[in-house]
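dumping these here so i dont lose them again. two proteins, back to back, each one seq then structure tokens. dont judge the mess
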Amino acid sequence: MSEKIEQKIGCIGCGNMGGAILHGIVASNAVDREQIYVYDVSEEKQEEMRTFGVHVMADNEQVCESSDIVILAVKPRYMAQTLASTKQALDGKCVISIAAGLSADQIRSMIDATPRVLRTMPNTPAMVLSGVFALCSDCDLTDGEKQTAEALFAPLGIVEWVPEHLIDAVCGVSGSGPAYVAMFIEAMADGGVREGLPRATAYRLAAQTVMGTARMYLENGTHPGVLKDMVTSPAGTTIEGCYALEKGGMRAAVIDAVHVGAEKSRELGRNR
């Protein structure tokens, strides 16, 4: 096991994404629980975080004062209000933002202090240590802070460093992607149910098939087209299904979904 992170980690916001990250950090044992400080406006979320064994603070400012690295896991529309409440507590510290559409410069402009800012795009499978974390390579973190950020997220999935101008594209692919994959699993299961499979069995077959196929690519580097061809025999069942998907416009629909998601991320940034 890799060495534990020594810095104190703060997290403001413990909703779906912030909660997934915290759940993953605790499950991975990358940071001692007594070194994690959190706050959420929801009392229900505060109680949930207490069950993790981390410090639940009284407000955002206390989280920042207690931490060396602070993860900002609040929605973009609440970011300015949230950062105003931190006052000077972020001065000279490392800030990691997961807010879609907000650039590092926009984050800095909302803070009444001078922190170093890393913009990231995670996704919810971090909760089961299978997430994706895209980190902006052109940030102003020190080399040591970059190493810590990678060490913090690596146990939760995979880490990719990309220039900030590509982070909106990442949002369209892996940020929103879990929803698309879930829809595909649901649709595959519905097809199984239509053919007579019990609902629970259909879901398990579909989910395992998605996970297994993804692992074949990630572990072996086998091109997705080759993976498809491995299953697609001449005049067989699979080519009929592939034809139905092509006729239904699956590829174009997925490409459009990624595009509109990325464009929405850009729009969120332009409207700030």
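---- next one ----
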Amino acid sequence: MAQNLRIPPVIALPADVRDVEGYRWHAAAESYLKAVTIGLAGIPLIVPSLSDAIDIDALLDRVDGILLTGSRSNVHPERYRASADPSSEPYDTARDAMTFPLIKAALQRGVPLFAICRGMQELNVALGGSLHSEVQELAGRSDHRAPASDVQPERFAIRQDVALEPGGVLAGIVGCGTIRVNSLHRQAIDRLGDGLVVEATAADGTIEAVRVAKAPAFAVGVQWHPEYWVASDEASAKLFQAFGAAVRERMLRRETTLAAAE
């Protein structure tokens, strides 16, 4: 059993879908792939967003955790009974169709789930919540969008404080009440999804992190981007370490169950 647990965990990342140069690509940004290898010594597996062709239960039988990535695309407003607005594009309906049933199945089966930026928004909507399409347009809210730059370290710079809920899961993971993060987004949580608990907020009241209260395993969403600085930022590293610990705990339970069945 112990020998098997030294095998790196496999982490599934549902793909973004892009039409480029006449081809339809299913892809994930390298920053998330490297965060899996660096942050929890796992193997990232990009899963194509082919919802009609992918057996989700079979997928969850073969992977050890789910990482929902951020993206330039937004969750389509029809998913939370709102009207689409060209100013809030781009959308990625193929990814929506893949991630929504995947989220529900992973939660039901106790597969550890870490949702980042768009991923947190997907988690909220999958559980019946809604989103603000352009949070910076709301009265009293700050502009959470990335600074205008083609230099990624500038766009993803750590520059915003978020307050962690006292006694919450995230506060326990990072060991403090306030952390600085690199939150950059347009969409934000409006109505909280069923069973979600707020774990962190920005100074303007924007929800910046959530968890699924009764999930049988790690199920956390953050609006910021810990994947980008996982190798150098302590709080980012701790989040991926906690996800990795939950993944390996599930691996141990599965190995124990298989051993008992033999």
